[in-house]
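[Meeting: bench + compute handoff]

Bench side (C.D.) handed over the final construct sequence. Compute side (W.E.) agreed to return the predicted structure before the next meeting so the bench team could plan truncations. Sequence as handed over:
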Amino acid sequence: MVTKLSAKNIDLLFLLCMILFFFSGIALSFYHYPAFYILLLLIPGAILGAIYKETKRNYSDDLYYIVLDGLVMFSGILMLIFRI
């Protein structure tokens, strides 16, 4: 799908996905999740939002395999570090 979209539409799709990610993370508070757990789950999304522009300019395999794929596991690692 992304290959069919223009650069502007890709940015809008990313923004929509990030908004949905943060709203769904915050919605966990309605299920009585502690704020600290929610924060740990939202940290990788915040990091991804911060490096989004760089990922559009840098086509390095290291960036994609280590950083972006590593963000998938980052919440789990944070929860292990904090013994949750």
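W.E. noted at the follow-up: The chain has one domain: 2-81. C.D. will use this when planning the next construct.
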